[in-house]
Amino acid sequence: MKRAGIILLVLGLVGFVLASSQRAGFDTVEGGIKSVFSSEERSKKEGWETARWVSIGLAALGLVLTVVPMRKT
Q1: Which of 4, 22, 37, 45 has a CA between 20 and 30 Å from the CA of residue 15?
Q2: Residue 53 sits in which domain range?
Q3: What is the mean pLDDT of residues 4-8?
Q4: Mean of per-residue pLDDT scores for the chain
Q5: Low-confidence winner among 17-21, 43-47, 59-63 (lowest mean pLDDT)
Q6: pLDDT confidence tier of residue 40, bands split at 50, 70 and 90
Q7: Cα distance between residue 53 and residue 67, in whole Å
Q8: Distance between CA 23 and CA 29 in Å, rounded?
Q9: Residues 45/26, Cβ–Cβ less than 8 Å
Q10: In 13-71, at which residue ranges do the beta strands (DSSP E only) sit?
């Protein structure tokens, strides 16, 4: 489980960085104007925001699986 936790943690962190960099393009003035007037751009922005939250959840799950030891029976 520890190996799976580390893999999930790494995937979550990489996904968060990737989604954050894509989402940052909408924080500029041009991106803000596009997202106000275009529903397609607004849905892209919301999609990247959702990807950020899912990635953080994945990283948190990986952290839990890494830190919390399994019971030995």
Answers
A1: 37
A2: 2-66
A3: 92
A4: 87
A5: 43-47
A6: confident
A7: 21
A8: 13
A9: yes
A10: none
The token pair that represents 39 in the structure block:
């529903």
- How far the first Cα of the chain sits from its last, in Å, is 15
Give the pLDDT score at 15: 94
Instruction: State residue 19's pLDDT score.
Output: 92
Residue 28 placed within a domain: yes
User: Is there a domain that residue 72 lies in?
Assistant: no
Q: What is the mean pLDDT of residues 4-14?
A: 93
Q: Comparing C-alpha atoms, which of 52, 50, 44 is closest to residue 20?
A: 52
Q: By the 8 A CB rule, do 13 and 59 touch?
A: yes
Number of compact structural domains in the chain: 1
C-alpha distances in Å from residue 32, one per residue of 22, 38, 43, 53: 14, 10, 13, 20
Taking a C-beta distance cutoff of 8 angstroms, is the pair 2, 66 a contact? Answer: yes
Q: Is 10 part of a structural domain of the chain? A: yes
